[in-house]
User: Fold these one by one.
Assistant:
Number 1:
Amino acid sequence: MNPFLFRLFRYNEIRVHELNYLFWECTTRCNLHCRHCGSDCTTVSGNPDMPLEDFLRALETVPVRERVPGFTVVLTGGEPLLRPDIDNVVRSIRERGVGVGMVSNGYFYDEKKHERMIEAGLGALTISLDGLEESHDWMRGRSGSYTRALKGIELAAHSRLAFDVVTCVNQRNFHELPRIWEVLQGVGVPQWRLFTIIPIGRAASDQEMHLSNEQFLGLMEFIKERRAVPSPMKTTFSCEGYLGPYEEVVRDTPYFCHAGVNIASVLIDGRINACPNIDRDAFTEGSIYKDSLWEVWNSGFKRYRNRNWAKVGSCRGCPVWKNCLGNGMHNWHGSCEAVLNCHYGKIRDASAPEKP
Amino acid sequence: MKWLRNILKGVSLTAALFVFQACYGAPQIPEEEMEQAMVETKAEEAPAEEDAAAETPVVAQAE
């Protein structure tokens, strides 16, 4: 797409800022102990699960006339399936004319759970698969998690759900990518989405989680190649950052961070943010226990909608600023003196692509 | 400018621009399915509205 026209489109989207994607961090309890967890989730969380009624009260501040047809609540965690009332959660949101999606590690997504979720009205699901058996179980900190996740993937792939599989690419699974592609295509997955880690939570100090510039460039080439192969499974890179020459090559549409433009989240303690992986202390806009979610959406989120504050560090004077606007909001943490991850810079600085 | 947005959304060449996915979120649900959900919800709400209308004369009588 013509970059100028796309920037016009983006400018208009920011002005209109229609809320159509709302995360709910409904629990921070988790049955796994993933090496890359951005939430630092634990089996026994310091925060109790947020009562459904509290979330529904916040959701109902969004006037019915403002709930656009695609308006979706995405349940995240922690592991949402650990909530004993998960069926009721899905059903209650769906009854309000709002779609429901879920991000799960797939461990508990067996046939029974699948049937109950479909019956309750779940519309979209993402399950993580972070490698072949050994790598996935290593990454997830629990043996058997690969087998169970794959079973869940098979169930979801053959249902009416809008479904995809995500893989966090790291040093361990980088060379497994072609075989993971075969596995997922073999079980009928419609879309495989790859992403890389940002240095937050447990992943901040774990070097095995991070790709070198050459590997990152190799990842771009891998996705480009797979997209050129006729396949019922679409391979794509997540919208986590601006990719310069790979824009619209590894994704369908140009890069656009929708955080605070179309995306909000209600965090486990009631705080209102954009995406759950964005720095909670630096970018929280309010609390559902003190503020109206809808009012905060309309009057807050200014730093998300005008990102001139991000023209610092390597972003200051950057030639691609107008396309990138400082990369994804989750790449800004703490005092925001510099962007944590520059995808464009990784590609620019790589000497040659390393093949997966 | 919502009018511009609505025009663009209706043009098949640009409609794909509006389908996004949060970096770590689930896919968007196809709009047809969502519209169906809206219809179902409205149908469920309808009897409640009728009940409310039926109660109005009683209130008026009491006044």
Note: Confidence is low (pLDDT under 50) at residues 47-63 of chain B.
Number 2:
Amino acid sequence: MNYINYLIVNKDIIIKELFNHLQIILYALPFAILIGVGTGILISKHQKLSKYVLYLTSILMTIPSPALFGIMVIILGPFKLGLGKPPAIIALVIYSLLPMIRNTLSAIKSISKEMIDSAKGMGMTEMQILFKIKIPLSLPIIMSGIRNSIVMGIGIAAIGYYISAGGLGYFIFAGLSRGRYEMIITGIILLASLGMGFNYLLLKIESLLTPKGLRFKN
Amino acid sequence: MPIKFINVSKKFKDVYAVKNLNFEIDDKKITVLIGPSGCGKTTTLKLINRLIERTSGEILINGLSIDKIDKIELRRKIGYVIQEIGLFPHYTVFDNIAVVPKLLNWPKNKIKNRVIELLNLVNLDFKEVINKYPYELSGGQRQRVGVARALAADPELLLMDEPFGAIDPINREILQDVLLNIQKKLKKTILFVTHDIREAIKLGDKIAVFKDGEIQQYDSTINLIKNPKNKFIENILGINAKLNYLEFVKVEKFIEKDFLVTNSISNINKIEKECLIIFTNKFEGFVLKTDIKKGHIKIRNDYVTPDQSVLEALNIMFKHNIHCLPVIEKNNEIKGIIKYEKIILK
Amino acid sequence: MNLFDYLFNNYQIVLQRTSEHIIVFLISWSASVLIGLLIGILITREKMQKYTNFVLTLSSIAQSIPSVAIIALVFLFFGIGKLTAIFSLFIYSLVPVIFNTASGIINIDKTIIEVAEGMGMSKKEILFKVELLIALPTIFSGIRNSAVINIATATVAAVIGGGGLGVIIFTGLAHYNVSIIFAGVLPVSILAITIDSILAILEKKLVSKGLLYEEGKL
């Protein structure tokens, strides 16, 4: 009963922080896709370069998220951008790069030269090859990179509370320091359902985008 | 290792995969199981190494029920080759071939020597392939390693499930010859599943034709071609079987002992046998009974080797208008003779 | 203010927090690797195979729940302290090990297992000489993933009394003190990268080169 009371009293702040949380992720997403997929496509022709870029991004991903937020504060501090949403968004973009680049590379790799050649042989134009072969084949793999980034981002954005970016981290961290169980429970429920919900939703989209002939791989 | 099937059936749910199998697989011979997919030939194979357990009946190996032998031990005594080969991707060629010897705790030196011996046997260059992983080999090389692996612990029995099915025709022919060569040297009991009648005729001493889980006909290759029991067998054989088989059946399958040997032609006047072979320390020629009957002794020099095709033998016979030919091994050993009327089918 | 000030002036604190971090990591991570491998192997045994997919689905859902939520959840039941922290880290880093062990094993080509059986390998020999060795690349990526996640989550676990370098980072973030942040960020990043590199070297040593082709690393 008490808990429902809490929800009613605090519904505004809950909605506000949920919105904040999603905002961080949604702002980061287009940058992550643009930079990640773009880099993936650009470096796909150079094997050595792809290897180095993948290695570099995998090192970046090893850095624990609170530490990466710290690094953002350190780097952006001098520009007066050390607090608030910008460092959180940038940290998220950096984290998203690895799954984006990796999946883009493997998507491009999955389209064999033979397949393109046979498409050309059948008389497809460059445009038709792009829309009928390259995009349908690579979209699901790239989508799974996007899903990974988003699901990861939901957890990482929670740390944003510590740099005044707002978001659902507030309920957990403030709840912990104040010993307010109803806040913590709210944080857990929202974060967990956001993570599971987005994962489920994006998986569905992924499988809808996957051509039927490729589905057996999952 | 002779194998005997007594009333063997296997049911999957309510459907019989094989039904009332009663047949005997000859020791040291190649027996081919052939039939359309789903006919039960692969099931029959797997019943022997107990990858599939039969529903009823009895299978005897060397007169002993396979249930009396520990499953693991039984399998280690049987070589097993399948179409997908199933080489272990994480093992090198050496380790793949050494699997069973290692399971049997052979000493290291013995294993190494065995691997070298086997690679020679399947015509692979030891130095070239020994440290390679399966992905670095061609399809043909992989299947050779698969055969070598199956032979590793010198099993008396070899089960081969469409081993060359996924290999291109040219390499398939080569591998079939490799197998025949191995068989000549090692004399294993081989059970060979295929759906390619050409392969069956070329390799099989005996052929069992399967349909819907039952054996339609089980006979020596030549008898099967000569006397197909029903329409189904005729269809499997194909229209040209009676002619085609000449090309890929070897002379050795028709060798007869209807001959005499002499070291000089001086004592010839009449002979009991069809053919008189003149032999001192090497093959000198031969004389035919029919020639003697006609009153003129003619020494002929033609012969065939056991691994030549029957078609080649027939060509020589046609050329000289004769009805039999001596079969002489390359090292000048007399094997016997081959007769026209045995080759030509009604 | 110099970036290295806090690090140099309080290196003893930093060292102590680092060793705390390492200890918490080692205890919780090795437990999750051991138990994760065990569960992963158990659920792929013949008699358990009907549950394999269920466990795989469950663990993939669990992987989409943010670590912060798990930490908070464990806190709700066990309160604050090192053991709570270790337990939540154990739970969270258990999931990728189970997932990768099980999926690595069930994705092995069935004919390879059948041939192994046909050659007369016992169930135990098949497990140790075939299944685990062929699944090793997947298992290793699960173990590495688990280590990286563990170190990162251990940082966050500072908020429920886990100690470690997270304490320094969160203190720095709370005071918006770049020098303190840096004193936590630097060692934790080095720690994460070092552990991952050690595991990468180990992986290279242990995984058969014959599997690189299938992994697409050639």
Note: Residues 169-186 of chain B form the longest helix (18 residues).
